[in-house]
Design goal:
The structure holds 2 protein chains of 2 kinds. The longest helix of chain A is centred in the middle third of the chain and has 7 residues, at 21-27. Chain A has 1 helix and 2 strands; from the N terminus they run ββα. Helices cover 11% and strands 9% of the residues of chain A. Chain B is globular. The chains are: A little secondary structure, B alpha/beta. Chain A binds chain B through residues 43-56, 60-65, and chain B through 8-9, 11-18, 21-22, 24-25, 28-29, 38, 41-43, 45-47, 49-50, 52, 56-57, 59-60, 63-64, 91, 93-96.
């Protein structure tokens, strides 16, 4: 099954995510149908968040001797 | 999906967008990654000594990996392993021993570019991945 992504939106005390129309058609889902799904938070990139610093060197290690 | 322990070099290199950053990001996003509390301390100290806030680094570590506390059992194992390694290699550090023992306990590989780890089968050496 293809991995689908969506944005969580607040609804009362819960969060809701829309099922993409393509998935609705592919799975023939109708209002009131029971469905199963897995939820996993998408990992965000932090690449380059500290661009100004130099590489970690041997002398930066704890207990360096 | 593989368990991977990420060392301080790798976190700093990723955050500074070094030449292996793309490879590191692939490993971070596609595997279950762990960071030793000793690595957190080393990385935070490095960033602070360069006059930057460690907040973005800490956010990255928390978002992309699970912290592994350095507890008493791990400390004892680290001490034993450090002693055995020192018989072979004079400059094998205690932090390196702690990282290796953390990975061993998690049955994880070690993502690093540190040649002190080159001899271990668990190691993913960044320069060989390029």
């Amino acid at each position: 099954m293809e991995l689908n992504k969506g944005t969580a939106r607040k609804l009362g005390g819960s969060l809701v995510v829309a099922i993409p129309s393509g998935v609705v058609r592919q799975e023939s889902i109708h209002p009131g149908d029971q469905i199963t799904f897995t939820v996993k938070k998408q990992k965000k990139s932090f690449r380059g968040v500290l661009k100004g610093i130099s590489d970690f060197k041997e002398e930066d290690k704890f207990f360096h001797d | 999906m593989t368990n991977i322990v990420v060392d301080a070099y790798t976190w700093i290199h990723y955050c500074r967008d070094g030449k292996y950053a793309e490879i590191i990001e692939t490993y971070l996003l596609k595997n279950t990654c762990f960071t030793s509390s000793i690595t957190v301390a080393e990385s935070v100290s490095k960033v602070l000594r360069e006059g930057e806030s460690p907040r973005p680094l800490i956010e990255a570590i928390h978002a992309l990996s699970q912290a592994v506390p350095f507890d008493e059992a791990l400390a004892e194992e680290t001490g034993r392993f450090h002693t055995s390694m020192r018989k072979k290699r004079k400059h094998f550090g205690l932090a390196d021993a702690a990282l290796y023992c953390t990975a061993k306990g998690l049955k994880a590989r070690i993502l690093t570019n540190d040649h002190h780890f080159a001899e271990f089968k668990e190691t993913i050496l960044l320069e060989k991945e390029k």
